[in-house]
Design brief:
10 helices, alpha/beta, Oxidized Rhodanese, domain 1, 27% helix
């Protein structure tokens, strides 16, 4: 069972394995429908496309962030419809050096399906390796016999829990946004600039090497230690809306730094309540 990363050669060996399901998570926050159009042009044979807004995101209230967690039953139903069963190995990929596959990986673990991994290097690595692609739409051989979601509640926190431990040694908030947005500069997405007081910055792109692959576990451990991570179970990941933060969580798991958690609402939820404090570097 693969629980963090799968390399392209391993995925290629299992292309015809009925117990493996591949999910194309290519999306673009700045261009709605771009991921689906890319999938239609070409994708890994047998892969199913999933939408960030329709599948990986739940109902928005205006106060729960731009990409709240989906309803677990609905997400589990999606997995079942594309053939995921209890013993299925899920492999998610995006364009490469991106964040959407990590979001799906997190959701699988959150609903109790640990056999989920991200394709290291994504579609870019698959293509560069000369592996086959297709434009044919995939069809599930049969629905997967997936049990009702066994939600891992401790993996995700809400704003109240983060607020309760603000400035506490029991919590280290890692913000996955770019350094300028963390500092409150060049904010073009959210109406309020800044970051959660006491948070530290770990841009999600820092987890990838120059080839677009995840850095080695040893190197990641050193970098997270430099970012102040001493006790992984105290780490809370956040970003703008709970998407790119999943990359930091995945990287820590890959590095053996287990049991960190996600503040799913992230900055876009945090600033929806004007009584919550804001810091700027």
């Amino acid at each position: 069972m693969y629980e963090t990363l799968v390399d392209p050669s391993t995925l290629s060996e299992h292309r015809d394995d009925p117990e493996w399901v591949v999910i194309d998570c290519r999306n673009d926050l700045a261009a709605a429908g771009a991921g689906e159009r890319a999938y239609v042009r070409a994708h890994i044979p047998g892969a199913f496309h999933t939408s960030l807004e329709r599948v990986l995101t739940g109902k928005k209230s205006g106060r729960n962030g731009r990409h709240p967690l989906p309803e677990p039953e609905r997400f589990a139903r999606f997995l079942g419809q594309i053939g995921v069963g209890e013993r299925t190995q899920v492999v998610a990929y995006d364009a490469g050096s991106d964040m959407y596959a990590a979001r799906l990986w997190f959701l699988c673990r959150w609903v109790g399906h640990p056999a989920a991994a991200v394709l290291d290097g994504g579609y870019a690595a698959w293509s560069a390796g000369g592996y086959p692609v297709t434009a044919e739409t995939s069809q599930a051989a049969q629905p997967g016999a997936l049990r009702a979601p066994r939600i891992c509640h401790e993996m995700a926190l809400d704003a109240g829990e983060v607020m309760a431990r603000l400035h506490s040694e029991r919590q280290l908030v890692l913000d996955a946004r770019s350094p300028d947005r963390f500092a409150g500069q060049n904010e073009t997405i959210d109406p309020v600039a800044g970051h959660i007081p006491g948070a530290r910055n770990r841009w999600y792109k820092e987890n990838y090497d120059g080839r677009g692959r995840m850095k080695t576990a040893e190197r990641l451990r050193a970098e997270f230690a430099a970012a102040g991570v001493e006790a992984p179970e105290r780490v809370v990941h956040q970003c703008g809306s709970g998407i790119s933060a999943c990359v930091n969580l995945l990287a820590m798991e890959h590095a053996g730094l287990t049991a960190s958690r996600l503040y799913a609402g992230s900055w876009s939820e945090w600033i929806a309540d004007p009584t919550r404090p804001v810091a700027r570097a």
